[in-house]
Design goal:
226 residues, Glutaredoxin, 9 helices, 10% strand
Length: 226
């Protein structure tokens, strides 16, 4: 009887210890990757969480609702931002990069972000594939994109002029340089505070795990700043 009680007590202690243990032991070099040297950040006092994405990327389209959820779950110490990639020009990524940076410069990027994914993948008004799932020729132009943004109170000619400005050309080069320095070779990729890079694959294969990892790294950075 004593042995049974001892065994039961040991089982309860083991279960309690297991319940208190973290569900995942996140490892640098396995689940996330250290960016060395770290990239500069733009929001002092905040931990930056950056998604590298493209409106032309099907995986980004799948992910954008999860990214929206992640953004809502970030603590007050963190801030979400976005860097558009251009490394797949055959699927119009250069035009979409220019479009996002222009929308950001005009103050309409945040409210139009999800709708741009829908315009490419749902309504197809800015779609890059035809009905036979082949790349369109010609692909949507910045003039086509400008017509989409009219609904956000920006005239099409104003949008095009801004899109082709020196400022936007410079910001495109800066985005490309940031992505290269971070070692990003796929989208979507998440970068935490310019120091850590991860994807859903590295995090364990789904967005629930990716969010847990991002929040872990945000907490790590917030703690380091104290």
């Amino acid at each position: 009887m004593k042995r049974l009680l001892a065994a039961a007590a040991l089982a309860l202690l083991s279960a309690a210890a297991f319940a208190q243990a973290p569900a995942t032991q996140w490892e640098a070099g396995k689940h996330y990757f250290v960016i060395d040297p770290p990239l500069p950040t733009q929001t002092p006092g905040k931990v930056e969480v950056t998604e590298v994405f493209s409106y032309g990327c099907p995986a980004c389209n799948f992910a954008h609702t999860y990214v929206d959820a992640l953004r809502k779950h970030l603590p007050p110490t963190a801030q979400m931002d976005f860097v558009p990639a251009s490394f797949n020009p055959s699927e119009d990524w250069v035009v979409f990069q220019r479009a996002y940076l222009t929308a950001k410069a005009l103050g309409i990027a945040e409210k139009s972000h999800d709708a741009m994914f829908d315009a490419v993948w749902k309504t197809k008004e800015l779609g890059i594939y035809d009905n036979n799932n082949r790349i369109k020729s010609p692909l949507p132009t910045i003039e086509d994109v400008a017509k989409f943004y009219v609904q956000y109170g920006v005239k099409a000619d104003q949008f095009v002029a801004t899109a082709n400005s020196f400022t936007i050309n410079t910001r495109m080069k800066q985005a490309d340089a940031y992505i290269k320095s971070a070692g990003v070779d796929q989208t979507p990729t998440i970068i935490v505070n310019g120091k850590y890079r991860l994807t859903t694959v590295s995090a364990g294969g789904n967005w629930d795990k990716a969010e847990q990892l991002v929040l872990f790294l945000v907490d790590k950075e917030a703690g380091a700043a104290k």
